[in-house]
Design brief:
The complex is a heterodimer of chains A (342) and B (260). Chain A is an alpha+beta fold. Chain A has two domains: 221 residues, Rossmann fold, CATH 3.40.50; 105 residues, Nucleic acid-binding proteins (OB fold (Dihydrolipoamide Acetyltransferase, E2P), Beta Barrel). Helix content of chain A is 25%, strand content 33%. Chain A is built from eight helices and 20 strands. In chain A, strands 6-7-8-3-9-10 form a six-stranded mixed sheet, sandwiched between helices. In chain A, strand 7, helix 5 and strand 8 form a beta-alpha-beta unit. In chain A, helix 2 packs across helix 3 and helix 2 packs parallel to helix 4. Chain A starts with a strand and ends with a strand. Chain B has 260 residues and is mainly alpha-helical. Helix content of chain B is 78%, strand content 0%. The longest helix of chain B has 34 residues. Chain B is globular. The two termini of chain B are 28 Å apart. The chains are: A alpha+beta (342), B mainly alpha (260). Chains A and B meet through strand 6, helix 2 and helix 4 of A and helix 7 and helix 8 of B.
């Protein structure tokens, strides 16, 4: 049975339009699940429903079989970390971390012991008497994490916790979060709009759009097999080509035939990442198309070409070995195992 | 620097314009002549003695302090939650309410005083002290709501939300997390409100009663009939008191706490 269970959650801010439209989400114990999507897709709203900051219009929210739908925030015992860290500015690191334990009326010795342990785990022991403003962004984020974890929460909720950090620190911190989460075995919901961050850290990913979950699967499956055009676009697919299914199971776009690994609807779209299109010397009759380079963009490791073909403009990343000029003819091949049908 | 020379001179002129009258008042307080004159011909502390021994000034001073203190504390008790509600929740007509609370600072004091006189004394027949207190409370409330509201605009409410998640109920979180972080705003609001109440003349004039009047109002009526430097001496004493208070604030909190 699922540890966390969101059933048909509807949320509306103004009473008319729904921000969440019957959202369903199941999370197993100890799992780290990401909510991924563009801004306004409802991912933060979902997290705030779980945290208890927003009332639901309808639906149920269960944790460990217990109904939490109407439980007030301060009785939920969930740890939460915000993008802005939200440390208590008037308290030292130690006092920040001890705050939740003091609220639980523990005796001083127990609090001191637990706080010291948590500071040690998060590598903050030497900063325990500093005020938040005397610390760097990464350190503050670790304090926020320690403060959320020390209360031994049932759930850990992370709302874009890495967005305010610079690129290098972000990678370091996400490894740190993953390490702590696995070590303590805390079921975690992680909200992000960054697909790389989300894929690297999550056990499962829920891609959200317009208040519903479009796809909920492991990062590997989502990366290789997006279900919908929205998911595909969001995780880096380009080159959407409308196709029509033939009697033999291949797909046809105008006069070009494409073989795919799976088949689906009669009218569909095929899509492929710019990296996965091969540039070949001789035109290929199957899964091949030719066109003229319109625009060339330098990406660092290689060039990207926008190629105009009879089936539409295709974005192709070169392999870095050979450079082509604008206006040149290019023969392309779309390998069957890289094509995704949406 | 040369580019700003004109501005420097202008600033000096403004300062001179502000401070020379104060300086002249301070000097006249030490004069030996029976009327206010400048420059003074002899040195005397008699006017200070007279000011300090005057029963009516003493009573007025104590009343002013009481009224200013009580009105400010009351306004804080009502104003802080009001400012919090206005900034935290999307109250309907929030902009209108905000402007409404600013209105007593836009409406001329004399009008506010007269309106309160009509309502408090004529309609409600309130006792003088309570009437004065209510009047001053209404005068200072906008300052509290504006200044504390300004502080709350800077406050990151996710801090409060984290406190809830750590087991604080909303009431406790307000005291443990919100209040400590807007303390500088509250102190500024307190000082601003206190000074405004203490200095207020129009409302006090209308709401004063026989034998119950605030210091500025009694100073006003004193200079109507007397032209001796007692008023100068009182002014010097008030200035000194203000300087001492500002000095204490600076030493304990830092003036920058007020500027925040």
């Amino acid at each position: 049975m699922a540890f966390v269970d969101l059933k048909d959650i509807c949320v509306s801010y103004d009473g008319k339009t729904n921000v969440l439209e019957g959202l369903n989400l199941q999370i197993k114990e100890g799992e780290l699940v990401s909510l991924l999507g563009p801004s306004g897709c409802g991912k933060t709203t979902t997290l705030r429903v779980v945290a208890g900051y927003i009332d639901t219009k309808s639906g149920e929210f269960l944790v460990d079989g217990q109904n939490y739908t109407k439980v007030p925030v301060h009785k939920r015992n969930f740890g939460i970390v915000f993008q802005s860290y939200a440390l208590f500015p008037h308290l030292t690191v130690k006092e920040n971390v001890a705050f939740g334990l003091k609220m639980r009326k523990m005796d001083k010795a127990t609090i001191d012991k637990k706080v010291a342990e948590m500071l040690e785990i998060c590598g903050l022991s030497e900063y325990k008497d500093r005020l938040p403003k005397q610390m760097s962004g990464g350190q503050r984020q670790r304090v926020a994490l320690a403060r959320a974890l020390v209360i031994e929460p049932k759930l850990l909720l992370l709302d874009e916790p890495l967005s305010n950090l610079d690129a290098k620190l972000r990678i370091q911190m996400r490894v740190e979060i993953k390490r702590l989460q696995k070590k303590l075995g805390i079921t975690t919901i992680f909200v992000t709009h960054d697909q790389e961050e989300c894929f690297s850290i999550s056990d499962r990913v829920a891609v959200m759009n317009g208040g519903v979950i479009e796809q909920y699967d492991t990062p590997e499956n989502i990366y290789a097999h997006p279900n919908t055009e929205f998911v595909a676009r969001f995780i880096g697919f380009e080159n959407f080509i409308s196709v029509h299914k033939q009697a033999d199971g291949t797909y046809k776009a105008q006069d070009y035939t494409f073989k795919t690994e799976t088949t689906g609807k009669d009218e569909a779209k095929i899509t492929i990442r710019p990296d996965d299109i091969e540039i070949i010397d001789e035109p290929s009759s199957l899964n091949g198309v030719s066109g003229i380079i319109q625009v060339r963009t330098f990406l660092g490791k290689s060039y990207q070409y926008e190629v105009s073909t009879p089936i539409g403009n295709l974005i192709v990343n070169g392999d870095g070995n050979k450079v082509y000029e604008t206006g040149q003819d290019l023969n392309l091949r779309l390998p069957a195992h890289k094509i995704v049908l949406v | 620097m040369r580019r700003y020379k004109g501005l420097t001179i202008f600033a000096i002129l403004v300062f001179a314009f502000l401070f020379i009258p104060l300086f002249i008042i301070a000097v006249t307080a030490f004069g030996s002549e029976p009327t206010i004159s400048f420059p003074i011909k002899g040195f005397s502390l008699a006017w200070f003695a007279k000011a300090l021994s005057s029963e009516s000034f003493k009573k007025a001073f104590i009343l002013s302090m009481q009224i200013a203190f009580l009105a400010t504390v009351l306004a804080l008790i009502i104003g802080i939650p009001a400012a919090y509600a206005l900034s935290r929740y999307s109250v309907k007509g929030r902009k209108f309410i905000k402007n409404f609370f600013l209105s007593p600072t836009i409406v001329p004091g004399i009008v506010v005083g007269y309106a309160l006189f009509q309502f408090v004394i004529i309609k409600l027949k309130m006792p003088v002290f309570e009437g004065l207190l209510l009047g001053h409370f209404l005068v200072v409330l906008p300052y509290i709501i504006r200044v504390v509201g300004g502080s709350l605009e800077q406050f990151d409410y996710s801090i409060e939300e984290v406190a809830w998640s750590l087991g604080c109920n909303k009431f406790l979180a307000f005291f443990k997390v919100v209040l400590p972080n807007i303390s500088s705003g509250i102190i500024s609001a307190f000082l601003l409100a206190f000074i405004n109440s203490f200095n207020n003349i129009p409302v006090s004039m209308f709401l004063s009663g026989p034998g119950i009047t605030t210091l500025p109002a009694s100073l006003m009526s004193y200079v109507e009939y007397n032209y001796d430097p007692t008023v100068s001496a009182v002014s010097v004493l008030l200035m000194l008191a203000t300087i001492v208070i500002m000095f204490i604030v600076e030493k304990t909190l830092g003036i920058s706490a007020l500027a925040k």
